[in-house]
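Two folds, back to back.
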Amino acid sequence: MPEIPAFVLEQARQSPHRQTLTLSDPQDGEVLVEVAACGVCHTDLHVIKDEVAFPKPAVLGHEVSGVVRQVGAGVNHVAPGDRVACSFIMPCGSCRHCQLGLEDLCEVFFQRNRLRGQLYDGTTRLARGDEPIAMYSMAGHAAQCVVPAGAVFPLPEQVPLQEAAVLGCSLFTGYGAVRIVADLQPGESVAVIAAGGVGLSIIHLARAAGAERVIAVDIDDDKLALASQLGATDVINSSHTDPVEAVTALLGHGVDAAFEALGSVPTVKLAVDLLDDGGRAVLAGIAPAGQTMDVDITKVVRRKLRILGSFGAPASAAMPEVIRWAAEGRIDLDRLITQRFSFDQIAQAYQLLDQRKILGRALIQINPDLQ
């Protein structure tokens, strides 16, 4: 088995540190990818801070692009040498939800990977001696990773390989929220609460999908300025302006769809409060365990409001569309990616993310020579 460098999270509330691990060959229906880059996502930070339970020791990193080096039996849609991007949801393709096209609810993914850090045969591909190392999705904080084939998608030449990493979580999640869960229609009005990596992707995609008004809400003027560059027609700094009053002043009423991209009790309540009659609140932010909603039930009932959860998207449907939008130039990857780090700066990247010092999406260039 080859030895690879990887960043291992030993215990919660500690920084991942570099070690040498062994990587097993891909099994049936799996793909070994040499990692070009991996996005810096708040969900990984939740695991580091023990706000989301996950077994340890573990290798995190779930937003990956790279080059195929080996394929297992039964894989024929990609071959060694192909440039690829990988979705963080890795559907098994055969559970009851996958059979209905609900790959974002894949039972095997949640039971095996999210609860146990394993792939679908009940084992991990990473080890330190005889000790198995848990994998968060494909465990992209490593020089190479093994990914179920249903989460691996070829890239056209028009899409740059390094930047393509952010297609697999930030933009994939944004596309699922905008196009699949909200079913956003041209001419509709939108509010996006929290202009971080996912929120900015939602703003960008909502505008690309034809939303007439896209209102960004955050407490950071720099993030709001970037939101304007990515398609927000209006911005509201909620640290000194009441968003409900501001939206009403702008539109005369609430918005058709409000997207919550942080995962906190106050911002979820705000998403519901910003809705027009019949509107839908789409919750895309992951909250620390145990957080509950605080909403006016009577308002939800009488005004026919909808509160919808959105976790990624069905990979087989959404990833090809996200990649196509990137190839057509409808997605500006350069503007979404605001900071870049080397492989050995992984710990620093997550420290800065925790300090709210990353404006958009950050990228870890694990192998910058891969293009």
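---
second:
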Amino acid sequence: MMIILSQLFLGLINGCFYAVLSLGLAIIFGMLNIVNFAHGALYMLGAFFGWICLTQLGTWTGVEGLSLNYWWALLVVPIVVGALGMVFERVFLRRLRQVDPVYGMLLTFGFALVLEGLFRNYFGVSGQPYALPAQFRGAVDVGFMFVPKYRLWVVVASLVVCAAVWYFIERTRLGSYLRAGTENAAIAQALGINVPLLVSLTYGVGVALAALTGVLAAPILQVSSGMGSELNIIIFAVVVVGGMGSIGGAILTGLGLGLLEAVVTIIYPEAAAIVIFVIMSVVLLFKPAGLFGKEA
């Protein structure tokens, strides 16, 4: 039982990463109808920016000894990547809003390839070292295992972020403006809502969540140029199973997938890497809109 509980906790950590990443992807698709294939690359960008802020900022700026602490990196990196995402949406994606969505998908896919190629050319393919923050070193005895403090922090932070974003979109006035502006732009504009700004903010929030996940994951995983492409297909599968555009579905499916992978790893480890795709196939056969999605 202790082994099972330990494995489930490790699965919960992966599930938290899946949940926050798929949440950002679901926001972008559900509100903007953009299949954002650059999501994995922006997650990688967040991890690299976090690594640069903590270890390489002095070298890059020419100011010896300059660096940001972990908390500043956790705040600054999502804002910077979110701002870059808003510029990308305004300059490129906005020109494709009136054409077939496949063009936006191809543009974001090409953007992801460019980002990954640039970082692979500059940093190589090997992972970069990223030390744990000093305040999160060590472990906590939770009865059935010693849990590293940082992994416990990742679970708590991810669940808080998911709950806060869901509440913001579904229960606040600004969230209702976001939903109104993306569901019927003409009427929202007539009522005085700045729809173009809301669209840019929506895309910025989605990619900021990807960058935040990158900063959280960097001390646990190797920071490399290929880390985003490895997760991209899994995150899309999570969003499809949960329901394209369903905020709650993305969160619950992401968490559930992490736990399911842990169970399958105990029973039949070889199937852990494909279980999400088996589930996706079954769900699409019987409920094409996803578990929590709405029929078109």
